[in-house]
Amino acid sequence: MSADNKAARRFAMVAGEPSGDLLAGLLMDGLQARWPAVETVGIGGPQMLARGFQSWWPQEKLAVRGYIEVLRHYAEIAGIRRQLKARLLREWPGLFIGIDAPDFNLDLEAGLRGRGIKTVHFVCPSIWAWRPDRIEKIRAAADHVLCIFPFEPALLAEQGVAASYVGHPLANVIPMQPDRAAARASLGLDPAAPVVALLPGSRRSEVRYLASRFFEAAALMAKARPEVQFVCPAIPALRAEVEAALKASGMEGRVTLLNGQSHPALAACDATLIASGTATLEAALFKRPMVIAYNMNRVSWHLMHRQQLQPWVGLPNILCGEFVVPELLQDAATPEALAAATLRWLEDPAKVEALQQRFTALHAELLRDTPTLCADAIEKVLEG
User: Fold this and answer.
1) Number of domains, the chain
2) Is 273:342 a contact under the CB 8 Å cutoff?
3) Is 344 exposed, middle or buried (0-12, 13-18, 19+ CB in 10 A)?
4) Do 237 and 329 belong together in one domain?
5) Pick from 189, 28, 150, 194: nearest CA to 99
6) Mean pLDDT, the chain, as a whole number?
7) What's the CATH number where 223 sits?
8) Helix intervals (H) in 73-203
9) Is 172 within the bounds of a domain?
10) Of 52, 159, 238, 265, most Cβ neighbours within 10 A?
């Protein structure tokens, strides 16, 4: 290692939601291995804080999704970005790394890069799925993009954007063969009875629109299959909202609420009813059949749906190039439809086995030494 590598580094980072916090935690493992004295500051969550990150604002301030929801919080979010930019320009970190959250990070990166601070964006915005116009923002914002899907660097290179495929960090975290029995034991579940995991999202707006539907669907499943066990991971910041929805559904005592623990829940389950987002890829890496659901403000849905470039919304379907799992979105996400689609997985073991083989191949494709590859790419940016 060169003397420069041994020198202290100070990097600024922003991860705007729990999925970004997980990505950033693994990125920080690579940074700390390459530069043991590295200092990291900005906005982050518990995975980052556990690795010594200094968060200047709570991550929850940025975890807002949907056009209408963002508009409601726009003044506060814009104020945070403005103050953060001013502080970074005063303190001048060696590098800024925006982790996902493109609506917040790309504008911030462009402003910092325009003043001379080097920038990296971790996770290519889904220009291949919707909003292809974002490529102009990416080109202006990022010196380098760290890509988590293998087809993305070539796509960006065609547009003049430097990028590296670093694998998907979740593929390193989730075992190739999850231990269902151990997970059930850790959660106190009956090892013999079927388990359905309910994951209504990690954002307040998602819980608001999905939690009641999920619990009502669970009630219908429990009526049809009384032996089914239900678990629902709830992040601490949203537990009160999840508990309120559970109580209103009449399913208290039938659904085990967990403190976070989405990975044990996915490892333990036979099928999951899950909000569209990064969690669906986690479910695929756990090789679990799923029903992907989403519901949001009607105006937000209309605006987003118009910009969709592919027939799929869920990451497992996008990566497999077909509907390998059902998607029930907006008005289609009724409790009755959600319950019926989830129960079908419990009744078709041959279909489940075929899906598990598909997801195992996907896992192998996404598995790389992500922390080291990230550090390699960042070192080249610093040297270049």
Assistant:
1) 2
2) yes
3) middle
4) yes
5) 28
6) 90
7) 3.40.50.2000
8) 74-91, 102-114, 134-141, 152-157, 169-173, 180-186
9) no
10) 265
